[in-house]
Amino acid sequence: MTYSPIDRAATKTPQGVARRIRGLSDRTIAWIFVSPTIFLLLAVNIFPLIWTIRLSFTDYRVNRPNNEVSWVGLQNYQRILSDPDIWNTMQATAHFLIWTIILQVLIGFTLAYLINMKFKGNDLWTTIIVFPMMLSPAVVGNFWTFLYQPQIGLFNYVVAFFTGADPASFSMIGDVNLAPWAIVIVDTWMWTPFVMLICLAGLRSIPDSIYEAAECDRASKWRQFWTITVPMALPFLMLAVLFRGIENFKMFDLVVQLTGGGPGNTTTLTSIDLKREAFERWRTGYSSAYAVILFVTVFGLASIYVKALNKVKQR
Amino acid sequence: MKRGFMTTTAASALAAASLASAANAEELTLCWAAWDPANALVELSKDFEEQSGHTMRFEFVPWTSFADRMLNELNSGGQLCDLMIGDSQWIGGGAENGHYVKLNDFFDANGISMDDFIPATVTGYSEWPKNTPNYWALPAFGDVVGWTYRKDWFERPELQAEFMETYGRALDVPATLEELKDIAQFFQGRDIDGTTVYGAAIYTERGSEGITMGVTNALYNYGFLYENPDQPYDLEGFVNSAGAVAGLEFYKELYDTATAPGSSNWYMGENIDAFRSGQVAMQMNFAFIWPGVEADENVGGGRSGYFPNPAGPAGQFAQLGGQGISVVAYSDKQDAALEYIQWFAQPQVQAQWWELGGYSALRAVVEDPGFATSQPYAQTFLDSMAIVKDFWAEPAYADLLLAMQNRVHNYVVAGQGTAQEALDGLVADWTEIFEDEGKI
Prior knowledge:
The structure holds 2 protein chains of 2 kinds.
Chain A: H1 5-12, H2 15-22, H3 26-55, H4 75-81, H5 84-116, H6 122-130, H7 137-147, H8 154-163, H9 179-204, H10 208-216, H11 221-249, H12 253-258, H13 270-279, H14 284-314
Helix pairs in contact in A: 3-14, 5-9, 5-11, 9-11, 11-14, 13-14
Chain B: H1 2-23, E1 27-33, H2 36-52, E2 55-61, H3 63-75, E3 83-87, H4 91-96, H5 104-109, H6 119-126, E4 138-141, E5 145-150, H7 151-154, H8 157-167, H9 177-187, E6 190-192, E7 195-201, H10 210-222, H11 242-258, H12 268-276, E8 280-286, H13 290-295, E9 304-308, E10 318-319, E11 323-327, H14 334-344, H15 347-356, H16 363-366, H17 378-385, E12 388-389, H18 397-412, H19 419-436
Parallel strand pairs in B: 1-2, 1-3, 7-8, 10-12
Antiparallel strand pairs in B: 3-11, 4-11, 5-8, 5-9, 6-7
Helix pairs in contact in B: 2-15, 9-11, 10-11, 10-18, 18-19
């Protein structure tokens, strides 16, 4: 008597186990498989979130374990939303977010468009361009402090070469007017390749037949670009904006290494401020409220954005 | 026979003692900042390992993240560190929040007297509440902000002549902060051996404690006081007195007119680099760097000199640095940790500590007749330690420090508002913190 492989596998299942499994419904088996994931999600995401919301209504301080914790209601939220310093950090974050996204989308899309034109050395250029995003943000922040040094920095010398200004006459990270742009430049340098890769995927997903049909209809290159390339690459572009927006809203390491939030508070982004409140001033209740406000802001904006993205995809 | 018996007994006792020692051998972890003195301590501790049978592990964290990392560890009741060489300002929190073991009984039982240490270090590193005999640490590393200058540049005849012509006095170690500013401005943008150099490297760092540790050297000497000497936590008119405002304006002027471009976020490391690379004529820095300066091939070997923070209109003071060594209350190896402190307090160990580059706070070491001449910077260290003042050491010190970092950096580096507004704002911030703390 010969057994097929399925028969052999079936006979290897111990009878007791087989009997037990046979008694379970598909739904139960499905729950058994997903329950570890759900448990982990609850333990590392949902529970801390609920706990943070609870703490945000108290004056708890983690460095004062012996102090009595009082319920303060909405006081933390009121203090945060009426604090001009926090609105300044929001403004700094908005400046950083908006300009990095604009520059990265413009430059990233342009690079993707150029790379998409098949030419010799295309792959080599792609590799060279994506190199910055492979580096650690802390490392990038650190070495750009040297590039921005007025005495020895390459950046200042390049600017001086084109403008004729004295390299030591300006300090990108020491000047209140230039520092917000200094962090925008570095983030753009580092993350434009990421936007480029997403755009490139979008551009390569457009079938050649559409362009061929447009050629037959004698559409100009300019018209092809606006009526074929941009609309078809738009969902990808929007996805890149979503990723970069979320990432830059919580930007921390690169800016801390580069400017430490200074000069003054000109580059103190919300995540840096939140970290100071939570882990330097140890105002746990207050910083929990701060975190909840930021979470609601990002989640709300991202939800609206995702709906818009879905609409664009359905067109 | 009797002799043989004695020998055998002694050998057995010795063997038993070694066995007991081996059986109780612990692996102790000492936590400190990652800097030159920490390397010296690793060397020094080999002697302890040999004597005690315990092994030492070290957890060193760079200064800019030292407080974050270690206070996190203490606040979470972590058992990483058995011994902590924590910053002087942590002593209040360490004591009140139960992070450190109180050492009075241990000191009494082992004949360790705080009278044997430099008084300023005992107050600064060990006592909480201040000026009371409650000890939470043994002074481990005396440190203070002082100045390093390019002696070889100061001695150049052409510069001497030009300085004399401009300021009507010799180019020499400044006696006052105003003189220091003159010298720094004199060197600012000057060409020396084909290189453009700048006046001074001062502390301006925003993220941790840098600018506060720098600006206080001007504030103290112009009349800034942390509080009313007769009424604790009464700040108005002391933190923002006319003298304090003048001190802050002095620091800003020094930053604006006599420091290297781009020095908007400099602390210990950046100042050292600027000085060693010949960018600046003078640098403000903690005394711990002086052995390294002496040994440096570019600026050491007699090319640099040292002087204490110069006087201002209200006196001569300098910012205290340094740390005490404490036993962490969450450690389950407290006995072995106390053994380390007992060993470390010994005069011969303290003398060796100084030889290796650690600044001993033991009076027997620093008052030794040969001490002042033992190193080119030894006298400056002694003079500086005699004029120290320290930042708040309250449990809320981190809140107080962040507020000061923010206010001072905004004014000095970012140029926002006036000195008066910055210090008035600081009074408001500190008052709110003390109110939250229930102190006022």
